[in-house]
Amino acid sequence: MENFEWIDDAFRVEERKWGTWDSYDRDGKSIITSLTKENCINATRWYLKQKQEGFSETEIKYESFVGGKL
Predict the structure, then answer these.
(1) Where do the structural domains in the chain lie, given as residue ranges?
(2) Cα–Cα distances in Å, from 23 out to 28, 33, 66?
(3) pLDDT in tens, 44-60
């Protein structure tokens, strides 16, 4: 018996023995590892969509300053 299911006929998710969830493409290549099944499915859908349509080239930069004396 298989311990996974196909999602959107594009990838499958499988629960690992230690409680995490992994997604795999049709060729068996690992895509995403997540703590929950729902997060694994959502993250894999997003990743595959971005891979198909192209990832955004925008870069987000953060800057911070901590004042005071240590």
Answers:
(1) 4-53
(2) 9, 7, 40
(3) 999 999 888 887 766 66
Q: Which amino acid does the sequence have at 60? A: I
In eight-state DSSP terms, residue 53 is H
Kindly state the tokens that stand for 38: 């729902």
Q: 40 burial class (0-12, 13-18, 19+ CB within 10 angstroms)?
A: buried
Render pLDDT for 7-46 as a digit per residue (tens, 0 to 9). Answer: 998 999 999 998 999 999 999 999 999 999 999 999 999 9
What are the two backbone dihedrals, phi and then psi, of residue 49, each rounded to the nearest 5 degrees? Answer: -65, -45
Query: Which amino acid would we find at residue 44?
Result: T
Phi then psi for residue 68, to 5 deg, are: 105, 175
